[in-house]
Amino acid sequence: MSQKAKRLNSLTxxxxxxxxxxxFALVLLRxxxxxxxxxxxxxxxxxxxxxxxxxxLRLLGGRGAATLALAGMLxxxxxxxxxxxxxxxxxxxxxxxxxxxxxxxxAEVVAKIDDGFAGNSLFKLSRALPDSLVTRExxxxxxxxxxTAQPVPQQRKRDVFHEEMARINNVIKRDFFASAVPxxxxxxxxAEKYDLDPALVAAVVETESRFHTRARSQVGAQGLMQLxxxxxxxxxxxxxxxxxxxxxxxxxxxxxxxERFDGNLKKTIAAYNAGEGNVKRYNGVPxxxxxxxxxxxxxxxxxxxxxxxxxxxxxxxxxVPVEAQVDGVVAxx
Length: 333
Fold this sequence. Notes:
By secondary structure, the protein is an alpha+beta fold.
């Protein structure tokens, strides 16, 4: 994630946390109000009014203070029975965080938060509540989100001439990467495995690390494609300083982002730098100087590498045009 994106998150953290406290308290209080009867409800209302008179609790706001009070009482078991079988499921995935109210055999989504930072904060704050009331389900790093090697699609049979030209073109491209690009064989093979243009993968590597295997950023990104350790583990890498593991994980992550943004090239590159959430929030390249410069650098390296491939192709006489084009869509091989 870019430094600008992190500064944006830190600037809004206090406001978002306050709103999340109030939101979650409101959901619980409404549920509690529907289940509490008689003197218990009156007692709880008096507790809220008394809490608001204290300066420290006023800083949290009425509902924020009520949330903490409610969590303490529920943890002690004093009001658990009042909820009478009501349970909340906080489900977190890559798109949103959902709050599901489960009451007997009924389940209802009472809230859905699409903002990544707010949803993540809500998920963490829910840990203040006992497991008897709240269950958390984290689907963020499940295998179903991970790109897999693409099966060879069944195509209608081509004539022998075009099949041979395509084969020669692929051999020439492989030779180009092996001879003209650092770690070119690895880059070509991993890009081919995930149906990406190797020129794009090479452009990301060049922009991220300038082909230095031991590169490490200030925030801890590692290796040729500058992956954070958690992302690397998610994509199956255990040693991000190993060129093959790093490029394998980086290509897989690029493929994942490409699928998330329907093949849009600039959104994919921007998400690699600034994070998927920021690209969704701005519906395009975020207005961060670092990210915009990053996208421009990758696109420049991409166009340069494609031009080199065309020249190499012409020199070796294949005469088959390069399929990939820098036209706003992630090109396949």
